[in-house]
C-alpha cells in the first residue's frame, strides 16, 4: 500500500490510483484468465521530500528494469494475491518504476501455485513525456496473448488515461509543495518585520517593519485564496 | 543554570533568525539543518527544548521526535514543532510534542511559545 509522509495527502487522493483501480476492474472482465501488470515510472513524485514514501516489498529480486524482471518470481507473488495490489518503490528511482499495480486475474490467483510457465507481452506507451508507462499482460504458457485491435486500443487508451491522471497528480503535488514551501521564507520575512518593529526609537526601521508585516499578511492571504481556489 | 535549545530547520535563513532571536545570556543555542543524528545531539547537548521543523531531511521531524520520545529519560525535554502543514496540530498531538507553531508565524508568537516552555 502507498504510504505518504505528508499527512495532507493520502493514497486515496492520488487520482492515478483511482484510475488504475477503475482500469483493473474493467480488465478483469475482459481477460479473466490473465495477469495484468502496470509498471509506471514517475520519478519526481517519489523523490520529493514528503512525497510518496514506499512501504517496500521485495518481489523476489527483480530489478524492475523491464529487460531483467523475473516474471516467475513476480508470478509467485501474484499468485498469492486475491486483491489488486498497488506498489510504490523509490529505492533506485533512476531505474525502478515509480508505481506499480498488479491485478491477479484468474490464473490460479490466490492458490499460491507457482509451477506454471508464463509468457508475457509488454506494451509500452509511445509518447513517453515525463512518465514512462508500461502495461504487461501475462498468461499461462501456451495461452495466446494475441490481442484484437480493439483490445490493443483499450490498453493504449488506458495507458493514456493513467498518464493523464498521473500528470494531474504531479501538478497537484507540485502546487501543494509550492504553497507549503512559500510559507517558510514568509516566516523569515515575518520574523524580520517583528525585529524591525522592536526598534520604536528608530522610526524608519519601525515603519519598514510595519510595511513588511503588511506585505507578508497580503502574501499569506493570496496563498490561502489560492488554496481555496484549487480545492474548490 | 544554562539553558540549551536545539533548533532543527532546513531553511538556513529561518534557522539563523531563530538563533539570533533566542540567543541570550544563560542560553546555548545549537542549530541543525538535518535531523538524522538527533539522538546523538540530545545525548551530547542535554537540551531543555527542541524546536523541530516537520519537513526536514533526512528522516523528517515527526520520526526524529518519535525517536527522542522513545527514551523516557528524555521526557523532560520540551518539543515545539513548526510546519506549514495544515495538520500540524494533529501531528503534534500524535507524537507528544508540547506545542506547535504553524508557518508563517510571527516574532511575538514565536518568542511567547518558546518562553512558555522554557519557563515550564
UniProtKB/TrEMBL annotation, chain B:
Keywords assigned: Phosphoprotein
Modified residues (4-aspartylphosphate): 53
Record-annotated Response regulatory domain positions: 4-118
PROSITE patterns listed in its UniProt record: RESPONSE_REGULATORY
Keyword Phosphoprotein listed: yes
Residue stretches in coiled coil: none
Gene3D superfamilies: 3.40.50.2300
BP GO annotations: phosphorelay signal transduction system
Cross-referenced InterPro entries: Bact_response_regulator, CheY-like_superfamily, Sig_transdc_resp-reg_receiver
UniProt cross-references to PANTHER family, sorted A to Z: RESPONSE REGULATORY DOMAIN-CONTAINING PROTEIN, STRESS RESPONSE REGULATOR PROTEIN 1
Name of the protein in its database record: Response regulator receiver domain-containing protein
Source organism of this protein record: Arachidicoccus rhizosphaerae
Amino acid at each position: 500500500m502507498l504510504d505518504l509522509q505528508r499527512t495532507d495527502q493520502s493514497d486515496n487522493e492520488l487520482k492515478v490510483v483511482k484510475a488504475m483501480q477503475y482500469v483493473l476492474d474493467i480488465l478483469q472482465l475482459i481477460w479473466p484468465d490473465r495477469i495484468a501488470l502496470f509498471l509506471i515510472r514517475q520519478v519526481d513524485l517519489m523523490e520529493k521530500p514528503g512525497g510518496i514514501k514506499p512501504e517496500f516489498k521485495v518481489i523476489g529480486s527483480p530489478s524492475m528494469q523491464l529487460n531483467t524482471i523475473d516474471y516467475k518470481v513476480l508470478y509467485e507473488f501474484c499468485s498469492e494475491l486475491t486483491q489488486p495490489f498497488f506498489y510504490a518503490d523509490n529505492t533506485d528511482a533512476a531505474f525502478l518504476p515509480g508505481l506499480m499495480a498488479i491485478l491477479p486475474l484468474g490464473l490460479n490467483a490466490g492458490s499460491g501455485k507457482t509451477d506454471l510457465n508464463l509468457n508475457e507481452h509488454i506494451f509500452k506507451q509511445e509518447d513517453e513525456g515525463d512518465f514512462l508507462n508500461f502495461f504487461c499482460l501475462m498468461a499461462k504458457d501456451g495461452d495466446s496473448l494475441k490481442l484484437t485491435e480493439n483490445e490493443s486500443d483499450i490498453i493504449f487508451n488506458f495507458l493514456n488515461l493513467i498518464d493523464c491522471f498521473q500528470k494531474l497528480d504531479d501538478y497537484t503535488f507540485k502546487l501543494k509543495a509550492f504553497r507549503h514551501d512559500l510559507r517558510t521564507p514568509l516566516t523569515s520575512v515575518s520574523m524580520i518585520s517583528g525585529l524591525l518593529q522592536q526598534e520604536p526609537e528608530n522610526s524608519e526601521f519601525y515603519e519598514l517593519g510595519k510595511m513588511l508585516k503588511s506585505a507578508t499578511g497580503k502574501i499569506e492571504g493570496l496563498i490561502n485564496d489560492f488554496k481555496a481556489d484549487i480545492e474548490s | 543554570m544554562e539553558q540549551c535549545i536545539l533548533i532543527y530547520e532546513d531553511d538556513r535563513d529561518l534557522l539563523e533568525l531563530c538563533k539570533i532571536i533566542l540567543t541570550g545570556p544563560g542560553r546555548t543555542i545549537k542549530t541543525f539543518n538535518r535531523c538524522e543524528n538527533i539522538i546523538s545531539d540530545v545525548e551530547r547537548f542535554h537540551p531543555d527544548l527542541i524546536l523541530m521543523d516537520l519537513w526536514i531531511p533526512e528522516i523528517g521531524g515527526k520520526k526524529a521526535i518519535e525517536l527522542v520520545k522513545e527514551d523516557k529519560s528524555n521526557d523532560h525535554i520540551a518539543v515545539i514543532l513548526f510546519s506549514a502543514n495544515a495538520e500540524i496540530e494533529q501531528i503534534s498531538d500524535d507524537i507528544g510534542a508540547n506545542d506547535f507553531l504553524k508557518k508563517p508565524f510571527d516574532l511575538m508568537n514565536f518568542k511567547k511559545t518558546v518562553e512558555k516552555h522554557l519557563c515550564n
